[in-house]
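>> received
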Amino acid sequence: DLKVLERRLPEGQSARYLLPVLSNVISLSPESLTEEQTNVVSKKIADWLRYASIQQGIAQPSGGFFSNPRTRQPGPVTEVDGAIATDFFTVLSMGQYYTQDQWLNVQAFSMLRHWLLCYGGKELKIPESDKELGVNTSVTSMVSTTPTPSHLLPPKARLWDKAFEYCQRLVEQSNRRPLKKDDGDLQKAVGTQRWG
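>> returned
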C-alpha cells in the first residue's frame, strides 16, 4: 500500500520491510508513484546511502535462561583489508552484526540503479545517439559540479550527489586487499554490478 509514502516514510525496522515492496512496485508499475512520493523516497535513499552508522550492531539476545544481560559495546565496522572504517558505511563495509540503518543502506544500494533509471529525472537521461557517438556518459557528467551544499539541492539532484559519493567510496574500497576470499568475491560482485 503506497499510502504510507503520502505520510512520512518510516524509519528503522518498518522501512526495512517496505523497501523490498517498493522495489517491486517500481519494477511492476513505476508510474504509480507521484512526484511528491518520489521526492520523499529520493531524500530517504540519499540519507540511507550516506549516513548509516560506522559502528557495528549488537547481537540480539536470545532471551534464554543463560543469556548474558550485559552486552559489549559494539566496535567499529572495518574495511575489507581489516582497517577500521573512518569514512561512511557501504555494502563493502564489514561487521559481525549490522544496525537497522546499515541494512537500509544495503537495501537502498541494491535498488539504487533501478530507482535512478525510473525517477532520476528526465534531464539525466542519455540519448541513444550520444551513447553511439561515444559522448562522455559517465556519472561525473551527470552530477552537478557547482559547489551547492548537498542539503540545499532538490531531492533528485541530492540523491545523484550522494550516489556519486557512494560510488566513489566503493571504488576506493574495491582497491583494498581483502583479508578473506569471500570479501574479495564481494568486491568483485559489487565491481561487476551493471550500471549502464
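>> The chain has one domain: 3-59+72-190.
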